[in-house]
Amino acid sequence: MLANLPLLQAAARRKLTQRTQSVHDSHDVASSVLRRIDQLASEGRLDAFSDEDVLHFALTIAANQAVSRTRAMERLATQTGEDSTYAALLRQRLDACVDDERATMLLYRIALSIADAESRELFLLRFKGLTFQIIAQLMDIKPDAARQRWTALRRALEPQLAQGVFDEKI
C-alpha cells in the first residue's frame, strides 16, 4: 500500500482546490486513507480479494475524503446570514492550522470545550453541514429548538474563536 502512496496523493491533489490545500494537503488525505484501511482490516471488514481491489478502494476513499474536506471549507466560506461571522472565524482558525491533523485537533478542542453533550453533538452536526430539520430528527427535538440551541451555541463560540481561545498553544 505504501508503494501506492504517490498515487493516493495525486488522486487527493486533483480533488483539492487551491483554497483548501493549505489545510488539507494530499499527504493528510493519504494518511487518513491508510488509517481508514488499517481500521477496516483490523476489524475484519476490508472486503478486498487482490492488491488491485485494495488500491481501487483506497483511491475511492481518497477521493471521498478530499471532496468531503473541500465541501466543509467551501461551505464555511459561503455562509451568509446569522452564521456568517461564526463561519468566517472558524475558517480563519482552520486556515491557520499547518496541517489536517492540527485542524482536526482544533475541532476536537472546540467540541470538548462544550460541556453539554447535546450541544457538542449539535456543533459537530452543524459543522458537517446538516440542516436544522435533519439535526432535529437525529436529536429527537423540533427544528425550531435545534435552531434556537444553535443560535445560543454560536453566540457563545464566536467571541472565543475571535480571541483564539481554541488555538494550539506551542
Give an account of the 3D structure.
The chain has 170 residues and is mostly helical. It has two domains: 2-77, no CATH class; 81-163, no CATH class. Helix content is 74%, strand content 0%. α1 runs parallel beside α4, α7 (117-127) crosses α9 (143-163) and α8 packs across α9 (143-163). The protein is globular, with a radius of gyration of 18 Å. The model is unreliable at 15-24 (pLDDT under 50).
Total domain units: 2
Order of helices and strands: HHHHHHHHH
Strand content: under 5%
Structural class by SSE content? mainly alpha
Number of helices: 9
Average pLDDT score? 77
Output the radius of gyration: 18 Å
Number of extended strands: 0
Low-confidence runs: 15-24
Distance between the termini: 34 Å
- Largest sheet descriptor: none
Which outline best applies? globular
Q: Share of helix among residues? A: over 70%
